Amino acid sequence: METERLIDCLAGDLAPVRRLPPPSVRLGTWLLVSLPAVALVAWGSGLRPDLASRLANPRFLLEEAAALLTSLVGAYAALCALLPDQPGWKLWLPLAPMALWLGSLGQQCLEVVLRFGPAGLRVTSDAMCLPAIALGGLVPAIAIVVLLRRARGFRTTHACFCGALGAAALGATALRLYHPQDAAIMVIVWQLGSVALLSLVAGGIGRLLVRTSEHGHLA
Amino acid sequence: MAEEDPSWREWMRAAQQGDRAAYAALLTAVIPPLRRLVRARWPRAGLAEIEDAVQETLLALHGSRHLYDPARPFMPFLFGIMRFRASDVMRHTRRAAARETPIDDVPETSGALATNSTVDQTLDAGTLRAAIARLPAGQRQALEMTKLREMSLEEAATESGLSVTALKVATHRGIKALRKLLDGSK
Prior knowledge:
By secondary structure, chain A is mainly alpha-helical. Chain A contains nine helices and no strands. Chain B is mostly helical. Helices cover about 70% and strands about 0% of the residues of chain B. Chain B has eight helices and no strands. The N and C termini of chain B lie far apart (about 40 Å). At the A-B interface, helix 1 and helix 9 of A face helix 2, helix 3, helix 4, helix 5 and helix 6 of B.
């Protein structure tokens, strides 16, 4: 009896809603905003002088492709996570390009160790990576939070961390275009480390912002 | 997963455009398969818990109409919502059961202490849910967290990202609005 009454009530209060576009379309919107912003940061910071030769290097291209893919798949997973009918495997998809990214860099580290011994893996300070990736990922991060807030969907915590990963990875992709640092161990520690840290911090902040919108409008 | 009637997708598409009759038909049609799904997933759940889970799913579906893409089947969408919301209901029930003490050995005369019959309680719960569904989103969420899911203000603040004060205000306003709605329905 009570469920029927609930149905009457829900149907009685029904108002038209604006349908959310599919994740692929929303990913396109995110790229439309994010790519020019990231390109502007790379260009504004001054492209590295050896960029042309680096772009001819298959290993550099593989790392950049893996970083870019991590960004795209991270943002896509974030947008999918909000929908209740999306399968769980899509939510963990960013792990694949991340593994490729880390694997490629790890292989280089291994080669260095085999040639020069553990002393070849020397980590020096390159602290500019953290603010540089944060700056590059700022607009993409804002854009993904806006998209997630508008959706008001499910699994928001997972969505926020995936979205933050997408934004930070895009910032890291851009960083390699203007920051001449190619030593694999340095890239792992300073660039991937920054991506991981920023993903956690920005994901946590994003979660608060998205959840506030879900429970907002208190009056 | 339960079989999907082809008309459900159409009804949901119509509901997104504000068609009340199609929406009522859809909600009525999905209740039996929804009950079966909840029962299959939580075989030990009692009738009241199953009904709670079904109602929570319907409420969540109502708030998620904009997320449905009519190009995709409807049943996985509903099933996904059911998994999230029914899990909350079951978790809450288990927690409540752990806190409560069974009083089976109390003498039968204690029945005289009951203030409402089971039927009255069922009707009261239905009226209450219907009234909560009519509250503004923020007040509804605050009441759901602090009263229905029995979260502390601190827990609710952590989950919602709102301050404790904002939650107190929303809960207070929600209760006031609820009282008006319930008085009006008498």
